[in-house]
Amino acid sequence: xxxxxxxxxxxxxxxxxxxxxxxxxxxxxxxxxxxxxxxxxxxxxxxxxxxxxxxxxxxxxxxxxxxxxxxxxxxxxxxxxxxxxxxxxxxxxxxxxxxxxxxxxxxxxxxxxxxxxxxxxxxxxxxxxxxxxxxxxxxxxxxxxxxxxxxxxxxxxxxxxxxxxxxxxxxxxxxxxxxxxxxxxxxxxxxxxxxxxxxxxxxxxxxxxxxxxxxxxxxxxxxxxxxxxxxxxxxxxxxxxxxxxxxxxx
Length: 250
Description:
Number of strands: 17
Largest sheet: 9 strands, mixed
Radius of gyration: 22 Å
Helix content: 10-25%
Order of helices and strands: EHHEEEEEEHEEHEHEEEEHEEEH
Structural class: alpha+beta
């Protein structure tokens, strides 16, 4: 009778040191790479300067500037971004950033989940859970984002239809998933525009290609999560069901 084989143990997963720091919610991956190359990160007491140095999953002994690094509790925020703030940890031109607005909150490192340009307003997500953030921003998910846009004209039905049909701009195809007229005045109007993909300055470029200028652009929803009555410049933690709904939504 043959001797039964003992089950082989599955080796622990190994990842690059920069990725491990990012996944622990300490900093962004690019920031981790900078810290490592600058000699600020040590593994078991030895300075490591290679961002891809392999680290076993769950391995301790990582320090930054001599301080131990463990798992950071995940944080999920929604922020009502005012116009004029840059979505960046630091700006080379010295402009105000969203992190200036969050400075008094005493939060750990948080990365933006997607972007809003300087002139745009509204719902911005921030988190130190990089896996959750990557799922939300994955283009393959075609996650809907809803914007209210004030434009410098009163578009007719044909012009609204053209926004849904799309245009080619700088080698990219730009189109809205849905467009609706919310309200109109004599010289301008508010549109609701829904995207299920997000190219750089997507709405502004789409409207400009159709001869429409943007006066204001406010993101009001990501999936089913709505900005609601959150005041401009304020933030709140997401509820657990909101976090899971965004993770699961397709």
